[in-house]
Specification:
The structure holds two protein chains of two kinds. Chain A is of the alpha+beta class. Chain A is built from four helices and three strands. The longest helix of chain A has 19 residues. Classes of the chains: A alpha+beta, B mainly alpha.
């Protein structure tokens, strides 16, 4: 029986954001925007969804008088990502 | 990036692509490596010249390592401000270099508080510790050898962790210099310190700087 894929992660932009954040310790919102090629508005909505799911932490602060948004993946996010990849591998292996 | 449904292969491809993008986006500037490579090389070669040709430049050239802390603080703050992403490897490397910096200053403190007074005491009794003929000298380890041994540690760790071959090779040269330094006099230890500064940090730093500049140019094309 196939496992259900996590609906939070099974979305292109959210999965792209999680994949970027899994590979680093923390990243600025502008970095995520550049690497995913998403619009600021769309990315902001998806980041908020990941945050509400507890998969990432979002820290807002000021850097040189400009607002800075730092994102980092949480342990819940890492667990969910690992589960998602295992489920994908399960599908492919079948 | 659209929101069309993905199949399993597309999901895995996206994960792989994004992880690859994250890893490729990390570029060290090499400025710190160039700074310390230049300073250590200068200090080593000047000390060697002073000992070999019997002259004194009027101050201890190794004071430059303390002065170099000022630009290093400036460089670190500037790079921290410009950085948009921090990797786990970068964080670990920062810790390694911090511990290395503390260890170097602890070792220099040890030289100044333990080995220097002993050397002076022995000299007072007519025993030359650091003599041109080491076979007749008391076998206290040379400062230069211990410094060389320490230089190689963070460089090799960085080279392996970052998969940066020039630093791995630099560290190998550094360990070779350490072995050679065990069989030569103190003045040549200082020359080997200069070589280590060039191979360990200056050359890798220049390569990193070139790559960084090339990365900036490519991003603006």
């Amino acid at each position: 029986m196939f496992k259900d894929l996590d609906p939070i992660l099974h979305s292109q932009l959210r999965l792209a954001v999680m994949s970027l954040l899994i590979a680093v310790k923390e990243a600025e919102f502008t970095f995520l925007k550049e690497k995913t090629g998403a619009t600021a508005g769309n990315l902001s909505v998806q980041v908020q969804k990941l945050k509400e799911a507890g998969y990432i932490e979002v820290q807002k602060q000021f850097k040189d008088n400009y607002p800075q948004t730092l994102c980092r993946v949480t342990q819940t996010g890492i667990d969910a990502f690992e589960k998602y990849v295992r489920a994908l591998q399960g599908y492919i292996g079948k | 990036m659209n929101e069309q449904p993905m199949n399993e292969q597309e999901s895995l491809r996206l994960i792989t692509e994004m992880i690859g993008k994250a890893k490729k986006s990390i570029h060290e500037t090499g400025v710190s490596a160039m700074l310390w490579g230049s300073v250590i090389a200068l200090c080593g070669f000047v000390t060697f010249a002073e000992m070999h040709w019997r002259f004194y430049i009027g101050f201890d050239v190794w004071v430059l390592t303390l002065l170099a802390l000022l630009p290093q603080v400036f460089i670190s703050i500037r790079e921290r401000k410009q950085r948009r992403v921090l990797t786990h490897t970068q964080e670990a490397m920062n810790a390694v270099w911090l511990v290395y910096g503390l260890s170097i200053f602890a070792l220099v403190f040890y030289f100044n508080t333990v080995t220097e007074p002993v050397t002076r005491e022995l000299a007072g009794r007519g025993i030359r510790v650091f003599d041109n003929d080491r076979l007749r000298s008391v076998p206290i380890p040379s400062h230069g050898s211990l410094l060389l041994l320490l230089y190689g540690i963070p460089t090799l760790v960085t080279g392996i962790a970052q998969r940066f071959r020039p630093m791995k090779l630099g560290a190998v040269v550094c360990y070779a210099c350490f072995v050679v330094s065990c069989y030569v006099t103190t003045e040549w230890d200082m020359f080997l310190n200069g070589i280590a500064g060039v191979c360990n940090w200056l050359i890798p730093g220049l390569i990193l700087w070139q790559r960084h500049r090339a990365g900036i140019k490519a991003a603006h094309v």
